[in-house]
UniProtKB/TrEMBL annotation:
It comes from Streptomyces cinereospinus. SUPFAM superfamilies: ATPase domain of HSP90 chaperone/DNA topoisomerase II/histidine kinase. Residues 1-36 are annotated as: Disordered. Keywords: ATP-binding, Kinase, Nucleotide-binding, Serine/threonine-protein kinase, Transferase. This is ATP-binding protein. The lineage of its organism: Bacteria, Bacillati, Actinomycetota, Actinomycetes, Kitasatosporales.
Length: 160
């Protein structure tokens, strides 16, 4: 079943349930050991899109059921492209493989929430990014920060 969260509370952040300080420290340690990709995306640098896809492909080489890595690549390229095209600032891509699956987050430093846009025609190549994320991700959302926001999605490794 899909989970979707939007807004600013802990569920919107895709955060793990609150636990004791000791549990949170153990969770942070476990996430620190998890295979991770972290990449700075330069302002208006569209070369970052295929580079991010290639790096994610390397990270996910032996991950998930057939087709899951390809979906992850597609959704990551959508979030990276949105951050590059719709902001005039740098962004940061983080992809973490954990026991529950994959979490990809693209953080930018520009205020304002992303808007789902509607493609105006079948030939229009703009306006489908968040629609794809919404339809293909197991969970996704927007997490506001003091400066900017993160748009994230999660994929379960074993989902069909």
């Amino acid at each position: 079943m899909k989970r979707q969260a939007r807004g600013g509370g802990p569920a919107a952040a895709g955060a793990f349930p609150a636990g004791t300080v000791e549990e949170e420290a153990d969770g942070a340690t476990a996430r620190a050991r998890a295979p991770q990709l972290r990449r700075r995306l330069g302002r208006a640098d569209l070369r970052a899109v295929p580079e991010a896809r290639r790096e994610l492909r390397d990270l996910l080489r032996h991950w998930g059921q057939p087709g899951r890595a390809e979906i992850a690549e597609l959704l990551t390229s959508e979030l990276v492209t949105n951050a590059i095209v719709h902001t005039d600032d740098d962004a940061v891509l983080t992809a973490t493989v954990g026991p529950q699956g994959l979490r990809v987050e693209v953080r930018d430093f520009v205020p304002g929430r992303p808007r789902r846009r509607v493609a105006h025609s079948d030939e229009d190549t703009h306006g489908r990014g968040l629609v794809l994320v919404e339809s293909l991700a197991d969970a996704w959302g927007v997490r506001p920060h003091e400066v900017g926001k993160s748009v994230w999605f999660e994929l379960d490794a074993d989902a069909a």
